Amino acid sequence: MLLQFSLTIVALLICAGAVAALAGLLAWQERAADPDSRRLRLVRAVLPVTSVLLLLLLGAVFSLMMLWSPQGAAALASL
Prior knowledge:
single chain, 79 residues, mainly alpha, 3 helices, 87% helix, transmembrane helix
């Protein structure tokens, strides 16, 4: 049970960090000097990093759902 709670806290910290990183990334993109720079930042940095961060968020939420499902304790014990 303690392992479930600690893994939940870690997953929630990962989610909070990913959301903060997304906010910082979007703020960085908006601070570009001109529209062309903003578009370049969007295509070269924001979209790839955003896709990775959203994949991380999806994985964390899926892991939490698996962890707290009725079969989650058995699956955790088999690791």
